[in-house]
What we know:
Chain A is of the alpha/beta class. Chain A has ten helices and 13 strands. The radius of gyration of chain A is 24 Å and the shape is globular. Chain B is elongated, with a radius of gyration of 19 Å. Chain B starts with a helix and ends with a helix.
Amino acid sequence: MSTPAIATDALTKTYGTRSVVRDFTFRVNPGEVYALVGPNGAGKTTVIRLVAGLAFPTSGQVRILGKDPHQHPAVRRELGAVVEAPAAFYPYLTGRANLRLHADLAGGVEPGRIDEVLRLMELDDAADRKVGVYSLGMRQRLGVAAAVLTRPQVLILDEPASGMDPLSLHLVHSVLRQAAEDGTAVLLSTHHLDEVVAYCTRVAILEEGALIDEVNLFDRRERFRARVTDLAAGVRALEAQPEAVTHATIRGTELVFIPRSADDLGRVSTILAEAGVGVLEMNRDVFDLRAYYRERVSAERARRTGQLTATQDGRATGTGHGGAA
Amino acid sequence: MIPTLLRMELAKLWRLTSVRFGLALLLVFPWLWAYAPGIFEVYGFFLVSGFQVPALSLLSSMQFLLPLLVAITAAELLGTEMAHGTLPTILLRPVTRPNWLAAKLIVVALYPFLMLLLFLLASLAAGVPFGFGAFFGGTGLGEAGLLGQGMLTSGQALAEIARGYALAALALVPIGMLSLLFTVVFMNAAGGALATLATLIFMQLLVVFPSLEPFLLTTQLNAYATPASEVLWVMALIALYGALFSALAVVLFERKDF
């Protein structure tokens, strides 16, 4: 198995007595877009800063391409990141000069690369203006330009959509999607669940610094459901064709499956028909991340509140016993 | 990497508000002081040579103005990185934290020398009307003070002034380091500069303990008048302060969360 581009083990960060990140373990593989979502104060930014090597974990480990970024600063040559919103640059320098500075600090980039990323982020017209006069969205785009400047293997972005108009947002998403297709591992935090659903591979839902769920969006996006005449026979038939279907299971009264590609969707009907299974209805299994997110966060809060109440009850009982004793 | 960082920091230094304001003030200051009508009432002497203007400039600014300018500039050099949010951005590049801070420490150490060179040139320019020939008296920066021990040639006067200014600049270096250290602690420019000034004021009060006085950082601000026999000791003490503050700043910066 190849080394994950980003890996954490039981990552924990505590300030005083308050844990802002608790035992968070996750992996991001090359070519994946991994999103951190959660309410304000859930610990997303802290995770980003811990992974980027800007903050030190209280316990646990972070590995970028298999190396601890604190002990091996050279690994940051393979890291592109935007950790401030809006992205931070020297306001008295032009966009181009800021990128030149980043290139120098990274050990240099190939000739023409700065112009290339400026064009990519549609900043070529503003390249020779001072960053101090850039709009919020332009700064964010320059941030992404700086992040992809060295063609890094790992991209880390905290709220990349912050302050962006829909066109800029689309541009940034397409750049990140392309980077992932080229093999870059992308880790981002966001409140925009639509962008998560649009192109992220997996999403981690954080609440009070802890991972409460990790959803494989790739599977969810490509999932179909069918009402069939014989559920068990349908699953058996699809499981026997792994070159066409990667996953098949029964959910309630429906057969749920993931075709290997869009072309294989047509083959599913044939496979089922050949197995003597009639298809009554077939639909894409639309995954509502917003609803799922609300449900998971609410459930987690209810669980914690219940625990807290139980603890308080226990404490009250204990005090009572102590008093009696 | 260090040359790139140094180039970057030097370019930033010139853009700092405190540097531009400070240097402009130091260009004007000697002219005001050299021709101030109340100079006799305050210091009890008349200027007889242009070589005495640099001493007058230094004597009147070394206890407060120059340490203030150095402290503010050092604090601003790091504090603006926090204000602009550029510090985390730069640290994401393959730059080690000690290297990055070392570049700032080097620039902070160079700054008093650059500042006092300009101050000296401005003071000499302000002294032009008094002439630069040989004269009876002292420059104010030699062992015999402003009164002197007889005739002083232009060369001797210039050597005394250069030595005094070099020692004064050296004495200001640990103040810049201290300010950088406090800025690392408080993570903002105002906190760093104010803590430095408070420390200097506190140290000045410690003269009530005579045994401590020779070792105080504030005592070293008079290094420009140090007799030749004690120069090495004073320089060693200043270097020790500078090394201590720098090392502490690097150690704290290494473990800081951003």
